[in-house]
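Figure 3 (text version): structure tokens given as input.
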């Protein structure tokens, strides 16, 4: 009795999964539900073993991607205040550009620059590129939730 070539078997299985997406999804869900606790234990053990390394990697990413990190944080704050709107790819790129501009101005001048919401989130403003501006840090802190 000969066994099927592993590459052919894998290709046959891939074709079956492509032809039966609902059954594949149901089988994956059933397997996940059966092993849910084991997955959680494995995840916790993995994080515990590598916690310092993962925290250091996250910190390094934040340091290397400050504009992106600040944009993510601002979006999170806006989402919490229901001030987030769906953005196109171009609008997302504009927001990242605004945060990068603030960082570049800070590096060039040595004085902190902030990205500010023209109409503050607290006053109903949206987290949208048309509502963002770059201000000196001291000006932004003085402005608070006022509309200039």
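Below: residues designed for each position.
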């Amino acid at each position: 009795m000969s066994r099927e070539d592993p590459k052919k078997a894998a290709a046959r299985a891939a074709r079956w999964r492509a032809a039966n997406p609902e059954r594949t999804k149901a089988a994956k869900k059933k397997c996940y539900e059966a092993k849910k606790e084991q997955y959680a234990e494995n995840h916790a053990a993995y994080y515990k073993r590598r916690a310092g390394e993962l925290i250091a990697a996250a910190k390094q990413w934040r340091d290397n991607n400050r504009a992106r990190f600040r944009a993510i944080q601002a979006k999170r704050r806006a989402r919490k205040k229901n001030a987030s709107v769906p953005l196109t790819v171009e609008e997302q790129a504009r927001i990242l550009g605004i945060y990068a501009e603030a960082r570049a101005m800070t590096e060039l001048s040595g004085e902190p620059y902030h990205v500010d919401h023209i109409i503050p989130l607290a006053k109903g403003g949206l987290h949208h590129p048309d509502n963002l501006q770059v201000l000196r840090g001291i000006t932004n802190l003085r402005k608070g939730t006022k509309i200039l």
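The chain is about 70% helix and 5% strand.
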